[in-house]
Each structure stands twice: as C-alpha cells, then as structure tokens.
Specification:
Strand content: 5-15%
Number of helices: 14
CATH topology of the largest domain: TIM Barrel
Order of helices and strands: HEEEHHEEHHEHEEEHEHEHEEHEEHHHH
Radius of gyration: 21 Å
CATH class of the largest domain: Alpha Beta
CATH architecture of the largest domain: Alpha-Beta Barrel
Oligomer: single chain
C-alpha cells in the first residue's frame, strides 16, 4: 500500500536555506531546492513507498495512536483541487528574540550574538508568489523567525484580502506575541477577513522568568497582547488564541502556574515537548530532581492528553544523564552572564550543581 498524504501533492513548507519539503515534519534530508516549486510532481516519489523514511515522524505518531500531521492534512484537504492547498512559511530566521533553546538557524538575533555570517537568512518566496497563492489554497501556517515582524507576511495577507481569496483560507501561527502591528498595519484588521485564524503563542511560563527563557521579550507587553486577543476573540469567534509552551527542563517547574493563568482566561494549552537540544530536554533532569519533576506533571495531568502525560514521564527515567545536566548548567550560566540575565536564580538546580561540579569525591 502506498503512503497517502495530501501534503505530498498539495503542500509546500519553505525553509530559510532555499529548500522546500511537503511539510515541516518531513525530514530535512528529503529537502528539495526552492526552484522545485514549479514542478507539480516535486514530491511524488514519496507516494511510491508504504512508509517513507522522510515521513517517519508521522507514522511513528500513528503507531502510538497519536494524531499526526498527516491526519491534520487529511481533514483539511479539499479534493479534487489540483493546486497548492497548504503552505508552511518558515522561510526566514528574522526574529526579535533569542529563546534559550533556539539558535542562529531560526533567529538572526542569535546569529548576531554569535557573530555568524550571514546573519539574516531568507528564501525569496516573492519569485514564486503566483504559484503559491492558488485558488485552491486553504491553509497557511506562519512560523519563523517571528512571523509578525516579517514584511512578506503582511504583504501576502494584504494581497489575499484584496483578491477576495482570504475568505476561503485559514491561518495558523507560531508567534511570540511581542507585536501585533507592522508599521501602520494592524494584524487584527487583516485577520477579520480570513475564514479562521488560530494563534499559537509560545508562552512558556508567566511573569519575570518568561523574560529569561525567551530572551528579549517583555512579559508586560505579552500579557497586554494576550488581553487584547482575548477580547478580540470574543467579538470574532473565528479568531482563537492557544498557548503552546515548549516543555523543557527550563520551564517544567512553572507549568502549573501557567495552566492556572490560562484557565482563568479560558485559553487552551497545547504542550510542545522539547527533544532537542537534548541537554535542555526533560532527559537532562538529574535523578535527584526527577521526583519533583513528576510532581509538577501530576499537577497538570487532568489538563493534558494521556499520551502527553506518558511521554513526559517516560523522559524522566534516566540515571546516566550527568553529562547532559552539566552541559545544561554551562549553557544556562553562560547565557545569564552574556545577556546579564538571571534565569539560574529561578531554577531548582543550585545544590545539585554544586554537588556535581565542586565536590571532589576522589579524596573522600
């Protein structure tokens, strides 16, 4: 049996390295050049395989009885349209933050801090705009970088609204929610013209510590924008706000407070579990802190899917992860020093870090 996914024929995800894939879940090794956009059979080789290696993320999720990206595209597909139906734009690393578990590939601010050249990466999608904005288009997923500061994003939305195509198109976002305007354009005025708008905002925790995990943000500004979007979504029911925290060893300790904050405001939370870099994942939590980590997970158990609950707990079983934890300590303290931040002060690591790095057991 061949692998059937609408994204193979009708999807394009654009990345900053001048490459495309059917979707963001497809393995990077499968990438095709940006110029392949003009080829209607650009990904057809995937259909000849029962379980394409490039699509491993989806079929492994389905083996675990979890909902995959393929399931999502199957529900969205509008057959028999022959044009592009799904677009995923993460075509630039232009961003205004330096999130702790990100890096220069997806944040030019990270690249600037590290002295990388070229600092700003971008695939020139304007050369293919007429091929991308087809009459069959139904779903656009905007990532980044940070989509709400990207010129291409606003120009494309204006074009879709002006052409009248917007009424048939749903928008999805991954955004840090630090801005809602671009020059003189208010994004909410544009969103009102689309069929559906789903804003997935990367809020990892509430309060001051949020400023240190996603370096460069202001919790005060984000909270102001959260309030504004909550009010807007009540008046425009096709616009919804969802918290999508990245669960790592940096913010697990603060998730119960985040869930309480969201519950009061009737905001849904979908957890995104970090797997890389491994030294900031739940795998890096040392044995002496694993019981505390499980307590935090238990506090939100009733608010998360069972498979997410199991997945997080399954990552808290390692007893050979000292090297990961020590790497994490160096990473946290170095960035605190470089950026004049104090994330370390909020994390429950001090005593264990001293025990592992300063005590000399050789002479006991």
């Amino acid at each position: 049996m061949s692998w059937h996914c609408p994204a193979i024929d009708h999807g394009i995800a654009v990345f900053p390295d001048q490459k495309i894939r059917p979707c963001c879940q497809t393995s990077a090794e499968y990438s095709k050049p940006l110029s392949a956009i003009i080829d209607p059979h650009r990904f057809s080789d995937l259909k000849s395989q029962n379980r394409p290696e490039a699509c491993r993320k989806c079929w492994e999720q389905e083996d675990r009885n979890e909902k995959s990206y393929r399931h999502q595209y199957l529900s969205l597909s509008q057959e028999p349209g022959s044009g592009i139906q799904f677009l995923d734009f993460r075509h630039t690393n232009h961003c205004n933050l330096k999130c702790r578990y990100c890096g220069p590939h997806f944040s030019n601010q990270w690249a600037k801090e590290l002295g990388y050249q070229p600092i700003l990466k971008k695939s020139k999608i304007s050369d293919y705009i007429d091929l991308l904005l087809t009459d069959d288009l139904r779903d656009i997923y905007w990532c980044g970088g940070e989509p709400l500061i990207i010129k291409d994003h606003f120009e494309m939305l204006v074009r879709l609204v002006t052409s009248g195509k917007s009424k048939n198109i749903s928008l999805r976002y991954n955004t840090n929610l630090t801005v809602l305007e671009y020059k003189d354009i208010d994004i909410i005025d544009l969103w009102k013209h689309f069929k559906k708008v789903r804003i997935m905002t990367s809020v990892d925790c509430v309060g001051e510590v949020a400023n240190y995990i996603r370096s460069g943000c202001s919790w005060e500004v984000i909270e102001k924008n959260i309030k504004k979007l909550c009010e807007i979504s009540q008046l425009n029911t096709h616009i919804s706000l969802i918290f999508t925290p990245t669960v790592s060893m940096l913010n697990l300790w603060f998730l119960p407070e985040l869930f309480q904050y969201a519950k009061i405001r009737k905001i849904k939370i979908n957890l995104n579990i970090l797997h890389g870099p491994d030294y900031l994942s739940l795998d890096a939590i040392p044995v002496k802190l694993q019981s505390l980590a499980r307590e935090k997970i238990e506090m939100i158990r009733s608010d998360i899917p069972e498979y997410v609950y199991r997945s997080m707990n399954d990552m808290l079983i390692r007893d050979d992860n000292e090297y990961l934890f020590l790497h994490a300590i160096r990473h946290i303290l170095l960035l605190d020093k470089i950026r004049n931040e104090k994330l370390w002060d909020f994390l429950p690591y001090k005593d264990i870090a001293i025990d592992l790095t300063l005590k000399n057991y050789e002479y006991e």
